[in-house]
């Protein structure tokens, strides 16, 4: 049996604000796919201060949503998918039903990266920011501020996966919703 090779991808929610950058890395953290995606319902705010993307960049290099979705679905088919907040990312690209949950390694929902606390005698798990997880588990400080780098996020998630990939499926996708 061939071992499945993991891929990470990062995409931010589809809104009228421009947040559509899709990145796929291989297990060695090399970028294998990076595209600016043009949403189907237009863009009212490019949020350049958040991620540095300008209207000119999108008009020169952006690809239609349907093309990107097809490319991404082919890339991720039968692959372990690693990322932060995969539910939102996969749903944004209309891929959440195409990739089985047991193929997800989500650093936002994994028991490994949740903070455990007791509330009224019950143990509850709270979701940490990727920045907090990177500091705690990799001793890496991610840049602060408003600028968001999806490639850096992708690399952090893949490094976390590589460090903890031998943990049980329960540690990765235990029910925390």
Automatic annotation (TrEMBL):
InterPro entries: REXO1/3/4-like, Ribonucl_H. The keyword Hydrolase applies. The keyword Hydrolase applies. One of its GO terms (molecular function) is exonuclease activity. Residues 5-170 form the Exonuclease domain. It comes from the Eukaryota. One of its GO terms (cellular component) is nucleus. Keywords: Hydrolase, Nuclease. PANTHER family: RNA EXONUCLEASE 4, RNA EXONUCLEASE REXO1 / RECO3 FAMILY MEMBER-RELATED. This is Exonuclease domain-containing protein.
């Amino acid at each position: 049996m061939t071992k499945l090779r993991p891929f990470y991808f990062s995409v931010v929610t589809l809104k009228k604000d421009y947040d559509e950058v899709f990145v796929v890395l291989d297990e060695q953290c090399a970028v294998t796919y990076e595209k600016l995606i043009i949403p189907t319902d237009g863009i009212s705010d490019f949020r350049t201060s958040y991620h540095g993307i300008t209207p000119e960049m999108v008009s020169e290099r952006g690809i239609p949503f349907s093309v990107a979705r097809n490319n991404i679905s082919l890339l991720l088919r039968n692959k372990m998918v690693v990322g932060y907040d995969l539910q939102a990312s996969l749903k944004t690209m209309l891929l959440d039903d195409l990739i089985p949950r047991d193929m997800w390694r989500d650093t936002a929902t994994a028991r490994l990266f949740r903070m455990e606390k007791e509330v009224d005698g019950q143990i509850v798990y709270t979701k940490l920011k990727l920045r907090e997880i990177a500091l705690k588990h990799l001793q890496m400080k991610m840049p602060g501020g408003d600028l968001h780098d999806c490639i850096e996020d992708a690399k952090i998630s893949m490094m976390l996966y590589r460090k903890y990939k031998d943990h049980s499926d329960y540690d990765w996708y235990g029910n925390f919703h």
